[in-house]
Amino acid sequence: MTQSIFKDNIFDGKVALVTGGATGIGAEMAFQLASHGAQVIIASRKADKIAAAAAGLSKLTGQTVEGRECNIRDRETVKNTVSDIVDQWGKIDILINNGGGQFMSPAEHIRSKGWDAVIETNLTGTWNLTKQVAIQSMLKNGGSIINITMLTGRGFPGMTHSVAARAGVEAMTKTLAIEWAQKNIRINSIQPGIIASSGMRNYPHGVAIAEQTRPEIPMKRLGTCQEVAQLALFLSSDAAQYVTGQVWAIDGGRSLWGKQWPLPNPKQMEPVVIPSWPWEQTDEDN
Ligand code: ADE
Q: Would you say the CB of residue 21 lies under 6 angstroms from ligand 1?
C-alpha cells in the first residue's frame, strides 16, 4: 500500500462514490479510500475501462471495488446509479466528483458544441451527482463531497470553457457548504496543479507541455496522484469535521508564481512615460 499517514481502517463502514474513478487521480483516490476500509464504487462513462479498473483495484486492495458505467451528463442515469448504490449499501457517505474532461484550444477556436460539452460535463455533471447524492442520501445521513477542479485563480489560458465551469463548481461548493452546513454535509474543492497523471496523455503533447511548465512551478516538479489523494482522504475523513466550503490548491506553489501562457511581446515597445502634474515638474522634464 502507498505510504499513508492515515490509519488503515479510518473509513470502515463508509460508502464512497468516485466519478472518473477508472484512471489517474480518480483511480488513486478510489485505491486509497478502499485501502482504508471504505466500500468504494467507481463510475465512468466507458464500460470497458471501468470493468478493468474495478477488477484491478479489487485485486490490489483486497476489497471489492465496484464499477458502474455512468455518463454524468445523463440525469436519468445519474439518478439510477445513485439509487442502485443506496439500495445496495444504504447510503453514500463520500462523493468525489472527479469525472470531467476538456481540450486545449485558443478561445476563439472553441466551437459551440465543444463549449457546451465541457460545461455540461464539468459543471452540470458535477451538479447532477451532487443533487442526487444529497436528496437520496446525504440530506438524511450527512456526508462529505469533494469536487476536483483546476487552478482557477489566475484564469487558465487555453481552457476558457473548463476554467469557467470549474470556477462555477467552486462557487457551488461555497454556496452548498452554507446551505447544507446544518445537514452535516461538508463540501470542499481540490485544485490539482500539474500532476503526473494519465490525464496528461489526453492532450496532444501533454507530457511535453508538462515538461515545459516544470520550471514555472516553485517546487520544480510535478505533483503525484498519491499527494492529491492524501488531501482528498483528509477532507473525506472526520479529521476535517470543521472544514467546509473551501477551495484547496495542491500545486507546489504554481498558483502563486510563474508564466502560464506564452504572450508574445510587440516588436518594439513604447518607451515608459510617467506623467506628472505641472507643479511637480522636475529638472528632468524640462
Ligand atoms: N469523464 C469525462 N466525461 C465524462 C462523462 N460524461 N461521464 C462520466 N465521466 C466522464
A: no
Residue 40 contacts residue 85 (beta carbons within 8 Å): no
pLDDT in tens, 4-14: 889 999 999 99
Q: What is the value of pTM for the model shown? A: 0.94
Torsion angle of C-alpha atoms 54, 149, 116, 177, degrees rounded to 10: 100
Probe ligand 1: pick from 25, 41, 46, 72, max atoms within 8 Å of CB? 72
Distance 268 CA to ligand 1 centre (A): 46
Write the residue with the smallest CA distance to atom 3 of ligand 1. 100
Does the beta carbon of 69 sit less than 6 angstroms from any atom of ligand 1? no
State pLDDT tens for residues 110-123.
Answer: 999 999 999 999 99
Mutate to test the pocket of ligand 1, among 50, 71, 116 (most ligand atoms within 8 A of CB): 71
